[in-house]
Amino acid sequence: MKVKSILVSQPAPPEKSPYYELEKKFGVTLTFKQFIRIESLSAKEFRAQKIFVPDYTAIVFTSRTAVDHFFSLCTELRAPIHDELQYFCLNETIALYLQKYITYRKRKVHFSKVGKIEDMALVMKKHNTEKFLMPVADISKTDVTVFTKAKVKVTLAVMYRTVSADITPEEIKSYDMLCLFTPMGIQSLYDNDPSYQQGEQLLAIFGPAAQAAAQAKELRIDISAPTMECPSMPAALHTWLLNNNK
Question: Which of 17, 45, 79, 187 lies 20 to 30 A from 30 at CA?
Fold first, then answer.
């Protein structure tokens, strides 16, 4: 089938994104709409975990989303943020993002220079007398053995959840191709259309976790990424459209 419309289940990218080059080159229409949304736990829900934020001397952040929901929930909880609190971030981008909420001082903000959790654990190891708290999502699969190996004790605190965004079955069916990136995105497809039948609709699936979720639903994967030749979804779409959309 000739593809004319593609739904990409992500937020709209910046103007210079290669996605827009696909529209110009192949005459397709790309629509960007998230299949999932993030929402904070309520103060009552968080308190059920029996975690008292002021008991901790260091906070560990692996995403800017975690930063936003940590400070938002602390405000709702009326939990004081001490000036002495240390922050350990997965990368420098997250560390700099903290300036939205705190006065940035290098002595209290630490980050991995390579952006890997194993490296961040080693940074934390140098401060292993701290009491670490890590804000995570309800579906987090954080491998705490990384911290155990570094002899660092970290408490995981669920502060936000991932839920399916609203999209009608009619809208889902109106696209020639869907691009999905996460297992939750696959689940959202069925949450919004429990009787979903793929039929001729094409599916482009990014990442092994999402692909496994698609296979579990017995979906046909028409475009699989990343690969050595196509490390990104735009690259995978470009290759498919070049070879098939004639």
Answer: 187
Q: What CATH number is given to the structural domain containing 115?
A: 3.40.50.10090
SS3 label, residue 82? coil
Tell me what pLDDT residue 246 has: 74
H-helix or E-strand spanning residue 94? helix 92-97
DSSP line for 110-148:
EE-SS--HHHHHHHHHTTTTS-EEEEEETT----THHHH
Q: Please tell me whether the overall predicted TM-score, pTM, comes out greater than 0.85 for this model.
A: no
9 and 67 belong to one structural domain: no
Q: Which amino acid is at 89?
A: C
The whole domain housing 28 covers: 5-35+165-244
Compute the radius of gyration of the chain from its Cα atoms: 21
Residues 140, 91: one domain? yes
Name the token pair of 84: 């002495």
